[in-house]
Amino acid sequence: MRKIEEVLRLSAQGKSVRVISRETGVSRPSVATYLEKAAEHEIGWPLPAGMDVQALEQLLFAAVETPKICARQGCTQILDQQPRGRPARYCSAVCRVTTHRRRKRGPVIAEVHFGSASTRNRSEERSWMVKLRRDNDELIVVIGQSRDGAQRLASRLNTTARPTKAMDATRPVRSGSRVHWMACSPSLTSPK
Fold this sequence. Notes:
Order of helices and strands: HHHHHEEEHEEH
Number of domains: 3
Strand order of the largest sheet: 1-2-3
Distance between the termini: 64 Å
Structural class: alpha+beta
Helix content: 25-40%
Number of helices: 7
Radius of gyration: 33 Å
Protein name: HTH IS408-type domain-containing protein
């Protein structure tokens, strides 16, 4: 329970914040806050006529509402206040879907593949290609590479696409006739 009335009365008697704090049992920072807020609203002791303790607390400690902004990164639209229900987080369905898709997209992975349609007349040594893949989208980066060159490029692309410390190492993943070099944590590639 706040003792604002008592704090104002003792302050009007000329007592210091420390003495008021000791006599009322309210902390010094709280006493200082009460006195600052009362000075802002030009309220002293005795209280103005018709003002009780509840009205004084409402006046001094009225909640200041800051407008809420859309949760999508880069959107500064102010949200409309809804009278009922859960408060909105996004200003539109577009912002909500964009944020969801950004959060749910898979990582970009560089893969090394053996052979392609354009490697029919190439030697087996120079018939490796590198692809970038994210979810169902893929992009061929280079074709006609040696295996070592393709693996080095995939490793560099993976470390560039994922600049985190845990994703610096690469490891081979075999599926059928393809060899993928994917980024993985160092704990997975540590020697056994």
